């Protein structure tokens, strides 16, 4: 705990995570595609937006609660789906879901998670979404929906920015495979992190928990887990497939990975209840714009017909405020909670929520706002320039 106490912002967890994880695991978490231009841009773009505070307003009581797809959250910061979370800390998805519930927010479980839909639901009663890809085998999608309904998942979130895998060169250089292949380089890497290695060896094997049996069969056929996943992603998917999924699910449905206003319009037309503006944290197509840059255009295109969320580069309370002021219902984070988990397990994620919550409250007070509904373009100094 003492080291967690010396984390004062989200980036401090990154530094701690780097020391705790083998290099190849940290790079998988931290990295982006190609030259990582979009990865950097996601964060840099937030700093170009300037805030315009008001003073002498009573800011004693600040309420961060808001509604997201009919669900009340105590903080407008949700957790994006990330696969194979137990790789970063043995407590994995269960720890993150519990910390999210304690913080009063929503956790999205990835379809390639290392803990199953059912086990995550059993561990945490908080509001959960399930992220889905369009798997080649449509029967898997139907089964996922049935399992999510039974386990009480509130919404489905379809990720659409992964028709093929992005080019993550850090992983190529590190020869990263799932499960990790033992080479001299990887052996030296993991052996220099004995605590991580101990938990890795003594915890149940890390698998794609939601499809463990079919994935196992594929891996024993000779292909790796990554091969199996790549084969399951269907690059022929189009809007009709998504419309079919929305109809099948018949509940709150979000599309994640939209950055183009025309796609946002189309998503609304086929019945999506929410859009997550995302470039997969700069892990897919490089040289895309940042997510905050496209937010105003998407807000205009959607015109209130669906809720808009955004992820990518959110690291500060002021980033959360900027996105909400420009029209997002809430924001989401991926890497920051994984850094916090790697740094200190469940306690680490609790500490992360404690810090970001305090930051948002302090920033709202300095801005002269006491409620989320007061975050409008009026608090942005250069709103014209951005819009
Ligand atoms: C290690 C890692 C694994 C991820 N796995 C998934 C996934 O399984 N499904 C998905 O839709 N997005 C996945 N993402 C993308 C995140 O959901 C999210 O869009 C991104 O991390 C947001 O950017 P940020 O990390 O700057 O907050 C992953 C991201 C990371 C860093």
Instruction: Enumerate the strands of the largest sheet in spatial order, edge to edge or round the barrel.
Output: 3-10-9-8-7-6-5-4
Using the coordinates above, name the CATH class: Alpha Beta
Unreliable residue stretches: none
List cofactors, ions and other ligands: flavin mononucleotide
Q: Which percent range describes the beta-strand content?
A: 5-15%
CATH superfamily: Aldolase class I
- Strand-pairing-aware structural class: alpha/beta
Overall average residue pLDDT: 94
Total separate domains: 1
Q: What's the main sheet like?
A: 8 strands, parallel
What's the total helix number? 18
Do you know the CATH architecture? Alpha-Beta Barrel
Shape: globular
Helix content: 40-55%
What does this structure look like?
With 387 residues, this protein is of the alpha/beta class. The chain has one domain: Aldolase class I (TIM Barrel), CATH 3.20.20.70. The protein has 18 helices and ten strands. The strands form two sheets. Strands 3-10-9-8-7-6-5-4 form an eight-stranded parallel β-sheet. It has a two-stranded antiparallel sheet with strand order 1-2. α16 links the parallel β9 and β10. α2 packs antiparallel against α17, α11 crosses α12 and α16 crosses α17. The longest helix has 33 residues. The radius of gyration is 20 Å and the shape is globular. The N and C termini lie far apart (43 Å). The mean pLDDT is 94. The structure holds flavin mononucleotide (FMN). Flavin mononucleotide binds next to α17. The site of flavin mononucleotide has 23 residues, from α17.
């Amino acid at each position: 705990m003492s080291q967690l106490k010396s984390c004062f912002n989200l980036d401090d967890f990154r530094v701690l995570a780097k020391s705790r994880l083998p290099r190849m695991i940290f790079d998988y978490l931290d990295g982006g595609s190609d030259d990582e231009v979009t990865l950097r841009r996601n964060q840099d773009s937030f700093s170009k937006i300037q805030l315009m505070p008001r003073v002498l307003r009573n800011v004693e009581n600040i309420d961060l609660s808001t509604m997201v797809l009919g669900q009340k959250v105590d903080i407008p910061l949700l957790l994006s789906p990330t696969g194979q979370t137990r790789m970063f800390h043995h407590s994995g998805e269960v720890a993150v879901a519990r910390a999210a519930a304690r913080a009063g927010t929503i956790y999205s479980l990835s379809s390639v998670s290392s803990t199953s839909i059912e086990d995550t639901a059993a561990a945490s009663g908080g509001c959960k979404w399930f992220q889905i890809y369009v798997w080649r085998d449509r029967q898997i999608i139907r089964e996922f929906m049935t399992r999510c309904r039974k386990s009480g998942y509130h919404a489905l979130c379809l990720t659409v920015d992964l028709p093929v895998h992005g080019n993550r060169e850090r992983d190529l250089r590190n020869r990263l495979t799932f499960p990790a292949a033992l080479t001299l380089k990887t052996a030296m890497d993991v052996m220099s992190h004995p605590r991580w290695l101990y938990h890795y060896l003594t915890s149940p094997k890390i698998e794609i928990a939601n499809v463990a049996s079919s994935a196992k069969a594929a891996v024993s056929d000779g292909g790796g887990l990554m091969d199996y996943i790549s084969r399951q992603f269907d690059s022929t998917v189009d809007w009709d497939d998504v419309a079919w999924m929305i109809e099948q699910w018949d509940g709150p449905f979000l599309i994640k990975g939209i950055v183009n206003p025309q796609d946002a319009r189309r998503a609304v037309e086929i019945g999506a209840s929410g859009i997550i503006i995302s470039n997969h944290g700069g892990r897919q197509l490089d040289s895309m714009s940042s997510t905050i840059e496209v937010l105003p255009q998407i807000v205009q295109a959607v015109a209130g017909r669906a809720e808009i969320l955004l992820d990518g580069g959110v690291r500060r309370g002021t980033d959360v405020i900027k996105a909400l002021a420009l029209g997002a219902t809430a924001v989401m984070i991926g890497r920051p909670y994984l850094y916090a988990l790697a740094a200190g397990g469940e306690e680490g994620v609790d500490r992360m929520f404690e810090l970001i919550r305090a930051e948002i409250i302090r920033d709202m007070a300095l801005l002269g706002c006491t409620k989320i509904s007061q975050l409008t373009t009026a608090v942005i100094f250069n709103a014209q320039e951005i819009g």
